[in-house]
C-alpha cells in the first residue's frame, strides 16, 4: 500500500511537519558543508576558494535520504519513547549520520572538542575525510554506529543480530538500492523467519530507492511497482511506500508510514507476548523513493545532476578553480537558509531540535550501539565437569567437538534467563557434533514445522541458515550490541566470509584507539569438519586457508588456535569465550582423536601456547636434541607422535624433541604479535640450528612466513596441505600431502647430519610402507591395520 497524508489519520500537524523540515534542512546543510568547507561554516561572508577543501571527498547522493530517515526516527523515538538504534547501510552515508549526531549533541558528548556551535561546526566540517579526521562512511568513529559502511551487503543481517534477545529494542535499517543487489543482503531478508516476537526486538527495514549506484541504475528501483511489491511480500514483509520530490508531501507520507509501521510492530508483539500467538507475522517494511542528491544542484555544466548518478559523490568538483562552480555551491548552501537554522553563535535553533530525543534515546547515544557498555561476563562452568580422563597419553579417543558440545549446552542452560549467548552456523551444528546444545535450547524457527522436524523452537538460540554471510552478520550484530556467541562452520567454507571478517577486524582495530568504545565479546570461530577428515566429501571440502587470511590482519586483534585433543579444546574454548575485542579462530576435529593431555596439562599447555612434550621425545634435557619434531593441529600431532614412536623403535640413539604448538602466533617475533616469542625463548624451544621437521595442519608456507626471521629457519622443513585432495581414506590424505608418519621419519633421516648413511635401511622401510599403503587401500578400501590400530606406546 502507499502511505499518503490522508491515509495516516492522527498524524503530525502541518506545523510539526514544518519543524521536521527545518531539522532536515539543517542536516542537509551540515552534510554538504562537510564535503566542501574547511572555513566560513555559516557563510557569514561570501564564499571564496580558500574556504574550500583542497581535496573534495565524500558522497552527497545518499545523504538527503538518510537525513530524512534520521529526522523521522527522531520524531517517533521522542513521541513513543522508543529504545532504538539504526543500521545505516548505504556505504558512504557518513555526512548525514555525522550531521545528525552533531545536531542532537551526541557527537559533542563523544568528542568534546567538536562543540555544538560555530567553532565546533568548523571542526566537524574540517575533520570529515581529512588527514587526521574521520572516514567518509559510517564507521566505528561515528557515535551510534554498529555497522561499518565501507562495504555493502551486511546491514540487514547486522540489524537482525542486534534485535535477537533484545525484546525492547527497535532496530531500523536503511538499505540502499545498490546494497540490495548484493548476495549477502538478498539472503538476509530471511532473517524475519528467525525473529521471535516474544523474546526478540523488531527490525524495521527501510529500502531507500534513489535510483542509481556510482554510474548505473539500480535493479530494484527500475522494477515495476507491482513486481517489487510481490518480491517484498514474498520475502515475508508488508511494505509501505513513500516517495516524491516535494519535501513537505514526502514528510507527511514518511510520518504516516512510520506511524503505521510502528503500530503494526506493536500489535504483532502484543499478540505474541500477551495472547500467545505463534503464527509467523509479516513485518512492516518502508520503501522510500527520493531523488539521488535531492535538494542539491539540479544541473551542472549543462548536464542533469539531481536524480542521476552524477549526484553520487561530489556534484560540483571544480569549486576552487571554477568561479561558476563556486557561485553554484554558494547558492546551493544558502538555499537551506542557514540563518534560520543556527543562532548567532552557530548553535542549532530551538525549532531544529523540536523533535530530537534526549539522553540515551538519541540514536547517537543509545548504549546498544556501544555494546560493551551492556556486556556481562559469560557464566563459564568448571571445565572439570567436562574434561575426559587421561591416565596416559594416547590410550583413549574422544571426539573433541562432541566434548565441547556438552560444555556449550551448559553455557546455553546458564544463559537461558538472561539470553545473551547464541550459537550460529550454516546447518552444521549436529554435523559438527555440537548437538548436545539441543538439551538446553532449540533451533530458532518461525516458519512452518512438520512432524518429522526436530529441535525447532520459536525461542531457540541456535541459529542455522545455509548462508555463511547471514550467520556472520547475525553474530556480528549480536556481539556489537553487547552479547556473546560462537560461529561453528566447516573449515573449507568459512572462506565465504573472508571479506566480512576483514571488516570486523578493522572495526576492532579502530575501536581500540577510541576510549569511548567499550570492549565487546570476541568473534569466535570453531572450524571443524576440516581438511584432513573429509573422507566422503573430498576435494571440494578441503581448504585450510582461512587461517592464512586471518593472520594477515591486525595482529592486536587476531588469534589462531590448534588444540590437539579434547581437553585442550575445552581449555581453548574457555579462554576465547571469556575474551574481548578479538577474532579467535579455533580449528579442531570432530572425528575420534587421541587424548594426549589431562585437563591441568592442557591448561598449562594453552597458557604457554607452544611447548615440549617431554614424554613424547627421547632427547636428554642436558643436551640439545638431534632433531625437533614440531606439530600444530590434531592430525599432524598424531602423525608426529607416530613418527616419534617409529624413531624410538628404529633409531633409539637419536635424540628427538617433540614440540606442539597450540597458539600459532607464538611462532612470530614478539615485536610482530603480542603473543610472539622472543628469540631466546624460541631458540630454547626449537634450538638455534638443529633440523626442525614441522607437520602443520594447513598450507606449509604459512609456517615459513611466521618463522622466517628465526635463526633456525634455514633448518626448518614444513609439511602440510599442498592442494592434493580427493575422496579417500583418512591416512591416504596425509600420505598424498607428505604429512604421514613414514614421510616424517624419512625427512628426519634426510636432514639429520650423518643419518642418511647409517639409517638407509630404515628409510627404505618407510618408503616401502608408503608403497604398501598405496596398494592396500586400493584393494581393501580402508587404511593399513598398522595405522588404524596404532596407539601410543611410549
From TrEMBL:
Q: Could you state a single Gene Ontology molecular function term?
A: magnesium ion binding
User: Which InterPro entries does this entry report, sorted A to Z?
Assistant: Phosphoketolase, THDP-binding, Transketo_C/PFOR_II, Xul5P/Fru6P_PKetolase, Xul5P/Fru6P_PKetolase_C, Xul5P/Fru6P_PKetolase_CS, Xul5P/Fru6P_PKetolase_N, Xul5P/Fru6P_PKetolase_ThDP_BS
Cofactor(s) needed for function? thiamine diphosphate
Task: Tell me which Gene3D superfamilies the record gives.
Answer: 3.40.50.920, 3.40.50.970
Q: Where is the Xylulose 5-phosphate/Fructose 6-phosphate phosphoketolase N-terminal domain?
A: 13-373
User: Does the keyword Protein transport feature in the UniProt annotation?
Assistant: no
> What is the enzyme's class at the highest EC level?
lyase
**Superkingdom field:** Bacteria
Per UniProt, which keywords does this protein have? Answer: Lyase, Thiamine pyrophosphate
Q: Which residues does the UniProt record annotate as the domain Xylulose 5-phosphate/Fructose 6-phosphate phosphoketolase C-terminal?
A: 590-792
**EC number(s) on record?**
4.1.2.-
List GO BP terms, alphabetically: carbohydrate metabolic process
- State the coiled-coil residue ranges: none
Entry's family note: Belongs to the XFP family.
HAMAP family attached here? Phosphoketolase (MF_01403)
Q: Report the protein name in the record.
A: Probable phosphoketolase
Amino acid at each position: 500500500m502507499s502511505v499518503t497524508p490522508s491515509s495516516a489519520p492522527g498524524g503530525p500537524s502541518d506545523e510539526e511537519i514544518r519543524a521536521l523540515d527545518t531539522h532536515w534542512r539543517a542536516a542537509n546543510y551540515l552534510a554538504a558543508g562537510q564535503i566542501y568547507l574547511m572555513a566560513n561554516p555559516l557563510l557569514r561572508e561570501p564564499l571564496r576558494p580558500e574556504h574550500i577543501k583542497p581535496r573534495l571527498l565524500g558522497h552527497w547522493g545518499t545523504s538527503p535520504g538518510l537525513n530524512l530517515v534520521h529526522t523521522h526516527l527522531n520524531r517517533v523515538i521522542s513521541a513513543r519513547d522508543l529504545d532504538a538504534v539504526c543500521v545505516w547501510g548505504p556505504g558512504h552515508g557518513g555526512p548525514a549520520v555525522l550531521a545528525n549526531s552533531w545536531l542532537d549533541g551526541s557527537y559533542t558528548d563523544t568528542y568534546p572538542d567538536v562543540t555544538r556551535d560555530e567553532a565546533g561546526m568548523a571542526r566537524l566540517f574540517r575533520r570529515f575525510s581529512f588527514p587526521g579526521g574521520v572516514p567518509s562512511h559510517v564507521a566505528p568513529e561515528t557515535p551510534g554506529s554498529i555497522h561499518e559502511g565501507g562495504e555493502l551487503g551486511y546491514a540487514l543481517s547486522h540489524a537482525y543480530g542486534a534485535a535477537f534477545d533484545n525484546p525492547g529494542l527497535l532496530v531500523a535499517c536503511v538499505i540502499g538500492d545498490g546494497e540490495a543487489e548484493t548476495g549477502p543482503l538478498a539472503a538476509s531478508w530471511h532473517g524475519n523467519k528467525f525473529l521471535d516476537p516474544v523474546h526478540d526486538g523488531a527490525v524495521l527495514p527501510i529500502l531507500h530507492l534513489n535510483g542509481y549506484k556510482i554510474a548505473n541504475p539500480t535493479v530494484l528501483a527500475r522494477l515495476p511497482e507491482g513486481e517489487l511489491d510481490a518480491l517484498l511480500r514474498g520475502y515475508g514483509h508488508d511494505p509501505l511506500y513513500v516517495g516524491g520530490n516535494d519535501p513537505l508531501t514526502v514528510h507527511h507520507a514518511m510520518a504516516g508510514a512510520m506511524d503505521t509501521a510502528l503500530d503494526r510492530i506493536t500489535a504483532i508483539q502484543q499478540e505474541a507476548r500477551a495472547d500467545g500467538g505463534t503464527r509467523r507475522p509479516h513485518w512492516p517494511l518502508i520503501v522510500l523513493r527520493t531523488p539521488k542528491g535531492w535538494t542539491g544542484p539540479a544541473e551542472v555544466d549543462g548536464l542533469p545532476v539531481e536524480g542521476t548518478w552524477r549526484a553520487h559523490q561530489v556534484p560540483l568538483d571544480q569549486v576552487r578553480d571554477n568561479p561558476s562552480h563556486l557561485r553554484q555551491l554558494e547558492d546551493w548552501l544558502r538555499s537551506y537558509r542557514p540563518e534560520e537554522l543556527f543562532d548567532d553563535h552557530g548553535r542549532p535553533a530551538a525549532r531544529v531540535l523540536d523533535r530530537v530525543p534526549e539522553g540515551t534515546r538519541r540514536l547517537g547515544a543509545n548504549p546498544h550501539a556501544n555494546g560493551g557498555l551492556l556486556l556481562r561476563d559469560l557464566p563459564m562452568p568448571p571445565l572439570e565437569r567436562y574434561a575426559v580422563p587421561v591416565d596416559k597419553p594416547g590410550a583413549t579417543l574422544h571426539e573433541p567437538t562432541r566434548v565441547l558440545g556438552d560444555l556449550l549446552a551448559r553455557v546455553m542452560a546458564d544463559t537461558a534467563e538472561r539470553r545473551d549467548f547464541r550459537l550460529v552456523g550454516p546447518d552444521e551444528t549436529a554435523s559438527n557434533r555440537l548437538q548436545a546444545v539441543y538439551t538446553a535450547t532449540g533451533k530458532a524457527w518461525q516458519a512452518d514445522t512438520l512432524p518429522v522436524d526436530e529441535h525447532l523452537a520459536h525461542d531457540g538460540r541456535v541459529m542455522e541458515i545455509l548462508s555463511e554471510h547471514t550467520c556472520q552478520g547475525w553474530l556480528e550484530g549480536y556481539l556489537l550490541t553487547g552479547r556473546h556467541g560462537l560461529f561453528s562452520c566447516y573449515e573449507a567454507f568459512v572462506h565465504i566470509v573472508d571479506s566480512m571478517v576483514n571488516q570486523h577486524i578493522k572495526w576492532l582495530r579502530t575501536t581500540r584507539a577510541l576510549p569511548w568504545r567499550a570492549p565487546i565479546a570476541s568473534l569466535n570461530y570453531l572450524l571443524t569438519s576440516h581438511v584432513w577428515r573429509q573422507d566422503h566429501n573430498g576435494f571440494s571440502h578441503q581448504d585450510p586457508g582461512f587461517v592464512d587470511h586471518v593472520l594477515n590482519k591486525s595482529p592486536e586483534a587476531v588469534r589462531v588456535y590448534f588444540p590437539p585433543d579434547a581437553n585442550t579444546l575445552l581449555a581453548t574454548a574457555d579462554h576465547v569465550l571469556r575474551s574481548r575485542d578479538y577474532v579467535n579462530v579455533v580449528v579442531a576435529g570432530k572425528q575420534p582423536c587421541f587424548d594426549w593431555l589431562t585437563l591441568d596439562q592442557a591448561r598449562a599447555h594453552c597458557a604457554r601456547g607452544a611447548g615440549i612434550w617431554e614424554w613424547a621425545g627421547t632427547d636428554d634435557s642436558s643436551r640439545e636434541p638431534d632433531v625437533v619434531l614440531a606439530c600444530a593441529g590434531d592430525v599432524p600431532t598424531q602423525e608426529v607422535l607416530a613418527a616419534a614412536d617409529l624413531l624410538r623403535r628404529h633409531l633409539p640413539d637419536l635424540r628427538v624433541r617433540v614440540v606442539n604448538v597450540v597458539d600459532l602466533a607464538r611462532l612470530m617475533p614478539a615485536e610482530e604479535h603480542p603473543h610472539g616469542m622472543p628469540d631466546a625463548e624460541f631458540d630454547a624451544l626449537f634450538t638455534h640450528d638443529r633440523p626442525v621437521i614441522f607437520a602443520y595442519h594447513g598450507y606449509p608456507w604459512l609456517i615459513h612466513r611466521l618463522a622466517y626471521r628465526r635463526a633456525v629457519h634455514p633448518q626448518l622443513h614444513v609439511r602440510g596441505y599442498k592442494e592434493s585432495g580427493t575422496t579417500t581414506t583418512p591416512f591416504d590424505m596425509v600420505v598424498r600431502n607428505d604429512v604421514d608418519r613414514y614421510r616424517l621419519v624419512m625427512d628426519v633421516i634426510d636432514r639429520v647430519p650423518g643419518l642418511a648413511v647409517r639409517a638407509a635401511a630404515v628409510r627404505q622401510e618407510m618408503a616401502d610402507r608408503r608403497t604398501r599403503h598405496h596398494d592396500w587401500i586400493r584393494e581393501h578400501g580402508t587404511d593399513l591395520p598398522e595405522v588404524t590400530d596404532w596407539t601410543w606406546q611410549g
